[in-house]
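Today's session is about reading a structure prediction critically. Students often jump straight to the picture, but the first step is always the sequence itself: look for stretches that repeat, for charged clusters, for runs of hydrophobic residues. Only then move on to the predicted structure, which in these notes is written as discrete structure tokens rather than atom positions. Here is the chain we will use throughout the hour.
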Amino acid sequence: MIKKLILGLLITVLPVFASAAGGGVALDNMTPDHTNKASLQRGVALFTNYCMGCHSMEYARYKRVADDLEIPVELYEENLLFTSAKIGELMTIAMDKDQSANWFGSPPPDLTLESRLRGEDWIFSYLRAFYKDESRPFGVNNAVFENVGMPHVMIDLQGLCAVKPEIGHTASIDPLSGNVKNDGTCPEWESEGSMTPVEFDRAMYDLTNFLSYMGDPVKVERERLGVFVLIFIAIFFVFAFLLNREYWKDVH
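Below is the predicted structure for this chain, in token form.
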């Protein structure tokens, strides 16, 4: 019986360690903030304009996103609904999966739960890790996801890195020359975008923050209720302790 319990525990835990290993790719840190409505609003705008042509969020509804992000329905419909979809519908797309598999090698995944699958650090690093590689069908590769089939859809914002970007390396100062090393992800640019590297990093934070929210839209409410539950348990413990002492005070 004990052996079966240990085996069951190993089966449960091992996939977590395997996922955490992530192939040994260094990642940049990203801490989501689901209470930052402005960031989430910028994130949904970026997702709608740059991602939703290929990626759906078929487990979420436009109306729920609008309500949670405090975007008036009329404003959402006017600026973030580009098809005949209704505000109460699921966030699906018209792209046929068989056709997209022929175009990209495999159909672009639904992104509703992508942050739960990959993690925020992976998404944040991936979005900033495209670089020039003429051997690839779309002329780009990715330092986090080698041989990726996705084009660099935000090249007009970021530009295109001429060499493999330095993801997962913190900035440091060379003690001999005093020069800053690893200051930014790309040491050499093939073409420049409309945003500075700092502005693009901030934009990708917003997009990643939105994807993190989509993977766990009730996180803020759950954590808020959790505080009240812990307060209730603490108060209940006091009364339970006093009642227990009253029951046992005459027992010698």
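Discussion point for the tutorial: The radius of gyration is 24 Å.
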